[in-house]
Q: What sequence folds into this?
């Protein structure tokens, strides 16, 4: 058998979304079976504290690019900088196939940075297992992302992209764990993990 590609175009994504929607009860049951316990922070104040201490999870000597220092490259430069699957998702709004990212199972302490520009985006304390097949987070490092409406499917979703390089990362949904109720559903090819 041939290996499945790790990314898909919008047409394949749409077909997969329709198939997933038609299997709604089964998907919901499977998702519930894999969902992790609620996020550890229990109050809005705890979230603010979690977001403010992200630097404590950086490895010693890690250089952090400032979010305000924008990185603008040509398409040719992005193609040289990114792996083909990452280029497809980050620069062409593709979608990584579910359950293909090794970062789904990443449990070590550390920071998830943008694969395009190394901007810190999430910490390991913000991650949880949503059961969806993509790395999921209930909050972000402040200032890491910008959002915009995405009307590419049957309904409007909120797409988020790196504040520094503009790379597409995924969509944020309102079905995450307490206390935020958010699920930042991130394509794994858009992230690099830096252990503490």
A:
């Amino acid at each position: 058998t041939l290996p499945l590609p790790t990314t898909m175009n919008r047409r394949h994504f749409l077909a997969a979304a329709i198939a997933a929607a038609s299997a709604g009860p089964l998907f919901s049951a499977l998702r519930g079976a894999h969902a992790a316990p609620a996020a550890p922070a229990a109050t809005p104040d705890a979230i603010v504290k979690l977001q403010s201490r992200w630097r404590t999870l950086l490895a010693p000597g890690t250089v952090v690019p400032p979010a305000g220092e924008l990185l603008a490259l040509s398409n040719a430069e992005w193609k040289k900088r990114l792996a083909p699957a990452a280029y497809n998702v980050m620069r062409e709004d593709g979608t990584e196939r579910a359950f293909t990212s090794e970062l789904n199972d990443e449990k070590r302490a550390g920071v998830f940075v943008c694969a395009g520009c190394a901007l810190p985006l999430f910490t390991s304390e913000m991650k949880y297992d949503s059961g969806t097949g993509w790395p999921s987070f209930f909050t972000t490092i402040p200032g890491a992302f910008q959002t915009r409406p995405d009307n590419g499917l049957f309904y409007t979703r909120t797409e988020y992209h790196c504040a520094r390089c503009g790379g597409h990362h995924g969509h944020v949904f309102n079905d995450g764990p307490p206390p935020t109720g958010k699920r930042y559903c991130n394509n794994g090819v858009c992230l690099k993990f830096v252990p503490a």
User: Anything to note?
Assistant: Residues 10-22 form the longest helix (13 residues).
